Amino acid sequence: MSAVAALAFLPPDSFNVVVLVAVFILIALGLHFTFGLLNVVNLAHGEFLLIGAYTAFQVEATTGSVVLGIVLAPVVAATIGILMERGVLRSLYDRPLDSLLATFGLAVITRQVVQLIYSANPRSVDDPIGGSIAVAGLNVPWWRLVIVIATVALVALVSAILARTSFGLRARATVRNPTLAETMGINVGVMRAALFALGSAIAGLAGALLAPINTLDPQFGLLFLVNAFLVVILGGQGSLRGLVIAGAVLGGSLAVVQLFISTVYAQIIVLVIAILGVRLRPLLAER
């Protein structure tokens, strides 16, 4: 099952293109930090979306407030991300195969813990707003519009943090040359932990935002993992602008193609586009 299957309920109109573009960017934005910048092949990325989604579910079940759950989701995901990074990954940054195996193990453990707590039965989170609005003759559900707006705001915020703050400057120095960064007084370990936590928080928020329009189960994160990696790889590791473009290309292509053929074949075409894009990008960069 793919992210397409999780979003197959979306109406076949032009707003579907906008929503799927936003979803592709949103699910990949946290991976921009853990994989794109830190170069950790983070197979647990989908589980941070899972953590965010189930945080929203649990808080709603406890307090009746979905909004509070969405607010707390990135906090919970960031906390777990720091524990994972400090406890397991901090010594594996120069060992890519080991970090891949470690994140795979962490992903399996997380899914099993969620299943033990909540069982494998499907769960749901209420739409915090409900209803829809008519825009240019289209019936646009409010919450999907919120997802689009939230994605734009998150991209702008991440761009500002990395490009215009002292934290962003230290983060870029840490990513590009850790040894030189240490000689300049930057605590590389703390910066790596902060970047991993930030990526985890964004993934948790993404999961919480997507929870009201999806059915939840312990496999929830796997629905988005492959497409998140496709977006980051096609856009170029460490390139936020490339991530946005790749998300627009892949999400837009999927939304348009699935208007005419089944979602299974549409996903195959998107995979082909991603492979061709990865193959042709270096050739285009040389010109």
Multimeric organization = single chain
What structural class should be given to the helix and strand makeup? Answer: mainly alpha
Overall, the morphology is: globular
Give helix and strand order, one letter per element, not per position: HHHHHHEEHHHHHHH
Record keyword descriptors for this entry.
287 residues; two-stranded antiparallel sheet; mainly alpha; 73% helix; globular; disordered N terminus
Give a short synopsis of this structure:
This protein is mainly α. Helix content is 73%, strand content 3%.
Commentary on this structure:
This protein is 73% helix and 3% strand. By secondary structure, the chain is mainly alpha-helical. Strands 1-2 form a two-stranded antiparallel sheet. A hairpin with a 2-residue loop joins β1 (132-135) and β2 (138-141). α2 (14-29) crosses α7, α3 (31-37) runs antiparallel to α10 and α8 (166-176) packs across α10. Residues 1-12 have low confidence and may be disordered.
Break the fold down into its secondary structure elements and pairings:
Layout: H1 3-6, H2 14-29, H3 31-37, H4 45-63, H5 66-87, H6 96-118, E1 132-135, E2 138-141, H7 142-164, H8 166-176, H9 178-183, H10 188-210, H11 222-235, H12 240-257, H13 263-286
Antiparallel strand pairs: 1-2
